[in-house]
Amino acid sequence: MRLFRKNLILIFLLILITIVKPMNFEAKIEETTNDINLIPQALGVYKKWSFKTGNVIYSSPVVVDLNKDKYYEVIISSYDSRLYCLNHKGNKSWDFIDSEWYYSSAAVADLDGDNLLEIIMPKLDVLYCIRNTGTVKWSYTITTGAGGLSNTPCIADLDNDGTFEIAVAHERDMYCFSHNGSVEWVYSAGNWFDFASIACADLDDDGKLEIIAGSYDYKIHCINYNGTQKWTYDMGSYTEASPAIADLDSDGKLEVIIGSDDNKVYCLNHMGLKKWEYSTGDSIYSSPAVGDIDNDGQNEVVIGSNDNSLYCLDHDGSFLWSYLTGGDIYSSPVIANLDNDMTLEVLVTSNDGYIYCLSNTGTKEWDYYISGGFRSSPAIADIDNDGIVEIILGSMDSYVYCLGLTGVTKSGKIPWQCYMGSALRNGRMDSDSDSIDDLTEQFYNTNSALNDSDDDFLSDWDEIYYYPTDPLDGDCDDDQIKDGIEILTLNTDPFNNDTDSDGLFDFEECYYYGTDPNNKDTDGDGYTDYLEIEENTDPKNPLDHPPETITVIPPPETITVTPPPETITITPPPETITQNNTVTTTVETGIIFTSVIITATIGITTVVLLLRKRRK
């Protein structure tokens, strides 16, 4: 009997457990920290394609999108008397043939404001302006002298009249051409300008540009926008190197940087006075490139020398590092963030047949060998629009090469894209990497420090060249939708605030009514969205439409749209969300059901056993 009472008490306790409020079971996963050093995949290079020309290549490539398909073309000339246009896959789009050889490099710009790019290419005594299709737009023949147009042209708005001019040297004469090919002026130096190209800048902040070029008369010439001499600087020797212009020390004034045959790199201030010089071990034919290499907020200078070394100099001319190659360095370096790691890489070719990729501290990240060596400079661009840049090279083995990168998922900024900095070849950097160099940003009145001056999700160059919307107005049609959203997301017209002409602003359709701004009858029921809204039917439901016979009152000519409230209150989620690897699970229904079954089973079994025992 005593045993029977104990079992009944046990059964009662089990039933009590099932009817009280279930307990909360909390399973906590302790957060552990393991120090794991993830080693990024090494930056590498491989050949994507090559194209064979008919002779050696002295010219440096320029990479631009000629046909506006978002894929870049490569423009490069060869000693076989051809100017080549190659598509992003390395196939020839066209070539331009002349009876004379090409030694210079091409410059590219929209000269006449027709939203199409023109190519300026010198050939001995002829300057060609070539359309993006490869046909001649105009040409000018120089009839004096026995030499030729051996340097690369520079494109800039010299006189601030809203049109571009072209500056190019022929023997000892500097020619300035208008955008339509007429000669504006000629400046004569004491000796040949020869292979040295030209840089431009407004050195004295008077709104007009000056032209900087070195000559065989041992001088650096600064020429006014109208062809008169502003100043000269006497070097220790002649120069075949081209200048670069930048504000090195962030004082708001531009400096001129150029190498010379006397082994020195010169830095002059805006008045032509020497700020510093640096001596290398041999003559300098390389042109400098400029960028913030060490990420200290000030620009550095990288330049090659015939002592086989590439030098990186601080803004004050002090030595930062050098890298020794196996041959002379004639090429200009290029500067880019190849792997989007917040630091810049420097690429340079050498006459030893290698292109070198160096880190911002001067250590080698990779090199790539091409037989024949190099006398030209590389160019960097994302030619296939995949987010990763390619490197374009012309070699003395007569091939054009396109190199791709490995160990990279995305590339970053390109402050110095090619020989002379940009496609306009004006010796200026592209600080914001929007495909517009800092000088040309002044021409378009855009901000050289921001690649999207009006903050509308479109780069300045995209707005100028591809669409073209106003790079200084983020909402061209004033419909309260930024141009980038209209073009890239909604596919609406950034110049029309009612794209489908249904009487509703695009903003209303997108953010008030949820109708299609590109379709005046969103639900296809034969009634415009405006009419349905006026008749209080659903413009998104084809079964809900106005009566068959109605009187339509046309919308007023002026529709005033009340913008949404400035403050939008969003109902927050539950006040407490625990997300610290602690998982709390409340088991209620499952516990009740399971406990009842178990308890009933135990109770019945116990009672049966006790009754049997009592009978016995």
How does this model look, in words?
There is one protein chain. Mean pLDDT is 86; it is low at 16-39 and 559-589. Strands 2-33-32-31 form a 4-stranded antiparallel sheet, with no helix packed on it. The protein has 616 residues and is α+β, with helices and mostly antiparallel strands. The chain is 13% helix and 28% strand. The protein is built from 7 helices and 34 strands. Strand 3 (62-64) and strand 4 (73-78) form a beta hairpin. The longest helix has 27 residues, at 589-615. The two termini are 14 Å apart.
Helix content: 10-25%
Ranges with pLDDT <50 over ≥5 residues? 16-39, 559-589
Assess the beta-strand content as a share of residues: 25-35%
Counted by DSSP, the helix tally is 7
Q: Residue-averaged pLDDT, rounded?
A: 86
Write a brief caption for the model.
Helix content is about 15%, strand content about 30%. It contains seven helices and 34 strands.
Topology:
Layout: H1 2-19, E1 24-28, E2 44-52, E3 62-64, E4 73-78, E5 82-86, E6 92-97, E7 107-109, E8 118-123, E9 126-130, E10 136-141, E11 154-156, E12 165-170, E13 173-177, E14 183-188, E15 199-201, E16 210-214, E17 219-223, E18 229-234, E19 244-246, E20 255-259, E21 264-268, E22 274-279, E23 289-291, E24 300-304, E25 309-313, E26 319-324, E27 334-336, E28 345-349, E29 354-358, E30 364-369, E31 379-381, E32 390-394, E33 399-406, H2 438-444, H3 460-466, H4 483-490, H5 506-513, H6 529-534, E34 582-586, H7 589-615
Helix pairs in contact: 1-7
